[in-house]
Design goal:
The chain is built from twelve helices and 23 strands. With 417 residues, it is α+β, with helices and mostly antiparallel strands. The radius of gyration is 21 Å and the shape is globular.
Length: 417
């Protein structure tokens, strides 16, 4: 089978890496891809993930059998709809289903309609009404979420009244927003594959959104992640499935929303039980880089079962080990940062110990590698437990070298100390 992977980040590199190990996948194309995916398949430079016409032309030219859409934006923009209309099996939700992530207001309404546990929230479209509400709840810790997609940076948690007002007014210049109660507890991410009829739960993950060690500093797109999460035992996973996962898929079916792909459940485990923080309609980044390497079952066979709506009869197996991934970022991230920084040649580690995934890189005409964004690489280490996996990630992280490169030093530690 010929597969087209849509996207250019570390998530798409991880997807491409896993597909490259499949016995039924013969060729992999990536639109547009990065310097890492180019080593595993053929990058389609100039084919934008958001350009449905260019994607369809590439499908026709290269006789693509299946498509896997990595990022959320093409789903939200209707690219999946165009692929479906062309009769090509595609992993990823259409524009309607993508609202679970692309609209925080839609997501909250969905959660309330189907009685799925979540934080209380109020929608705002007017700066005046929003400011009055914040002032009437002065010094109370709240969460503000931009309604639309924001690449992981559209959320503020604060008890500083003026900080909340300034952030919210900035959002309201061009979007609506959601103000939620602040939930106390600890976070985990649960993923479920679906073929539109059945679903299969994958291993629980946890990511690190804060920029600096000790979980402090500004929010980022994610500076690292772990899988599995020791605190998510069988009992808690069953409760998450019964209270959140199963009702979500029942709600999608009731609302007539077809879906072939992955659903990401961002969950806060509170004293009152697990509650949904957010939905994503794709593999997370950097969660994909710890989750996908732990899938033992042929990923091509998983896609086949999804497209043929036979996922319910497929047993998905996992490697009996843990994974820790650490993001290597450009100097200045998540603020202003320089692009186009030369990367020293990278020696690939033993894959039993670690894999280095490119996040935002590109080749020059001379085949030298340069950085193309803020989060540039992720290094995923593997081991018998999280401590051993973290040791392997940090053992190999200095193989990634470019001026200004930095990373958190404590990924995974809070789970095994």
């Amino acid at each position: 089978m010929k597969v087209l992977v849509v996207g250019s980040g570390a998530r798409e590199h991880a997807v491409t890496w896993l597909l490259s190990k499949s016995k039924i996948i013969t060729s992999i194309y990536i639109a547009e891809g990065n310097a890492g995916t180019a080593l595993l398949g053929r990058n389609l430079t100039g084919v934008s993930p958001l350009d449905a016409g260019a994607i369809l032309a590439a499908i026709k030219e290269h006789q693509i059998d299946w498509v896997v859409v990595g990022p959320e934006a093409p789903c939200a923009e209707g690219v999946v709809d165009a692929i479906q209309e062309a009769g090509i099996p595609v992993f990823g939700p259409n524009q309607s289903a993508a609202q679970l992530e692309s609209s925080k207001l839609y997501s909250k309404q969905f959660l309330k309609a189907h009685k799925i546990p979540t934080a209380a929230g109020i929608e705002f479209f007017s700066a005046g009404e929003f400011e009055s509400y914040i002032l009437s709840n002065r010094d109370k810790k709240m969460v503000i979420k931009k309604n639309g997609l924001a690449a992981g940076k559209g959320v503020l948690e604060s008890s500083d009244t003026m900080e909340l007002i300034d952030f919210g007014k900035n959002v309201l210049h061009d979007d609506s927003l959601l103000v939620e109660e602040f939930l106390e507890g600890w976070e985990t991410s649960v993923f479920a594959l679906t073929d539109g009829k059945d679903y299969k739960l994958l291993l629980p993950c946890a990511d690190y959104k804060k920029a600096n060690d000790g979980d402090i500093g500004p929010n980022t797109g994610g500076m690292g992640s772990v899988c599995p999460v020791p605190k998510v035992d069988g009992s808690l996973m069953k409760k998450i499935e019964n209270d959140i996962v199963a009702p979500t898929f029942a709600g999608l079916e009731k609302d007539g929303i077809g879906y072939k792909g992955i659903v990401y459940f961002g969950i806060m485990v509170t004293k009152d039980g697990p509650k949904v923080l957010e939905y994503n309609i794709r593999f997370g980044d950097p969660e994909a880089q710890v989750l996908l390497p732990l899938i033992k079952t042929d990923f091509g066979e998983i896609l086949k079962a999804i497209f043929e709506e036979k996922l319910g009869s497929l047993k998905i197996e996992f490697h009996k080990k843990a994974a820790v991934t650490v993001v290597v970022a450009a100097d200045g991230y998540p603020g202003n940062y320089e692009k186009g920084i030369p990367v020293m040649p990278i020696e690939a580690p033993d894959e039993n110990e670690a894999v280095i995934f490119h996040a935002s890189t590109y080749f020059s005409s001379a085949k030298d590698v340069f950085t193309g964004g803020g989060r540039c690489f992720t290094v995923s280490g593997f081991g018998k437990d999280l401590k051993a996996a973290a040791a392997n990630a940090y053992k190999h992280i200095d193989k990634v070298r470019f001026i200004g490169a930095w990373y958190r030093k404590d990924i995974g530690r809070k789970f095994y100390n």
